[in-house]
Amino acid sequence: MRRAERNWCECGCRWLAKPGNRFICGHRAAKPKRLIRRKACKCGCGLYANPGRTFIKGHEKKKHIWDMPQQAREKISKANTGRVHVEESRSRMSIVQSKIQSLKKKPKIIKECECGCEELASPNMRFVSGHNSRGQEMSAETIIKVSGPNHHNWKGGVATESYCCSWRDQGYKESIRKSDGYKCQNPLCRRTSSRIVLHHINYNKKDCRPTNLITLCNSCNARANHNREFWQEHYESIMKNKTKVRL
Fold first, then answer.
1. How many CA atoms lie within 13 Å of 192's alpha carbon, on the beta-carbon side?
2. At residue 210, what are phi and psi to the nearest 5 degrees?
3. How far apart are CA 3 and CA 223, in angstroms?
4. FRET partner for 99 with CA separation of 20 to 30 A, picked from 17, 35, 170, 188?
5. DSSP state letter for 16
6. For position 214, what pLDDT does the model report?
7. Mean pLDDT value across residues 186-202
8. Residues in a beta bridge with 112
9. HSE of 14, CA atoms in CB hemisphere, 13 A
10. C-alpha closest to that of 225 among 206, 197, 192
11. Contact, 185 vs 214, CB < 8 A?
12. Taking the alpha carbons of 94, 99, 104, 108 in that order, is the dihedral positive or negative?
């Protein structure tokens, strides 16, 4: 008996529908979800209003003390002079003040990467991701620690091994991608990459049988380098459940 494949709900909720269905029950008329960003309250308190609001409730007519005239500020300061707060009130004020400081946005400053590649780094960052070690000379002790059997991800030198002869045949690899519909076959895919590659299920580069090759996106292929036992069992179960025959 053929097992129906589960598809992503077409409403955009990023949940899997039942086998053979296009939508989750009740999601047919749903609109795709959109990200609503919270904005800082316009009264100047430094806190964030609810999504879609410009003020925190009750802050519409509130004026920040910095916007008050000098005479009004002196009057408030004189009224609060000598006032003693209880310990509970002090702790509350310190918590609120720490939250205000943490929520204040820093100005976004975009600069060129300091490695010299002339690419623009992310806002408030000095380097493009992965460029912070470019041009740096490592000491002999550091090279020994991060290379060879001393590396935490050492697999016996398999990275230097050559692939099988079939791996050079672009037509053979294209037939496998075509049989998979040019889509990532991982149900746990995060949908963060559109580039597809072929992955060796048993991590043996010389084993290029069709049953050992599966189409994955670039992100899932990178995730498979960690916790290999789990991913090997996961992809083997997917291949067993497939009913189509690869040519």
1. 9
2. -60, -30
3. 27
4. 35
5. B
6. 93
7. 88
8. 120
9. 7
10. 197
11. yes
12. positive
103, 47 contact by CB (below 8 A): yes
Bridge partners (DSSP) of residue 8 are 16
Amino acid at 91: S
DSSP string, 211-246: GGEEEEEHHHHHHTTSSHHHHHHHHHHHHHH-----
Which pair of tokens denotes residue 241? 């459940």
Q: What is the pLDDT of residues 53-99, one digit of tens each?
A: 888 887 776 655 556 677 877 887 888 888 787 888 888 888 888 77
Q: What proportion of the chain, given as a percentage, has pLDDT over 90?
A: 7
Measured CA angle at 101 (ends 95, 103), to 5 deg: 100
pLDDT tens by residue, 130-157: 777 666 666 777 777 777 777 766 777 6
Task: Give the DSSP per-residue string, 40-77.
Answer: B-TTSSSPBPPTT-SS-TT-TT---GGGS-HHHHHHHH
> Which amino acid would we find at residue 235?
Y
Which residues have a Cβ under 8 Å from the Cβ of 111 and sit 6 or more positions away? 120, 121, 126
Say what the pLDDT of residue 126 is: 81
Q: Spell 90-102 as b/e; 16+ CB within 10 A means b.
A: eeeeeeeeeeeee
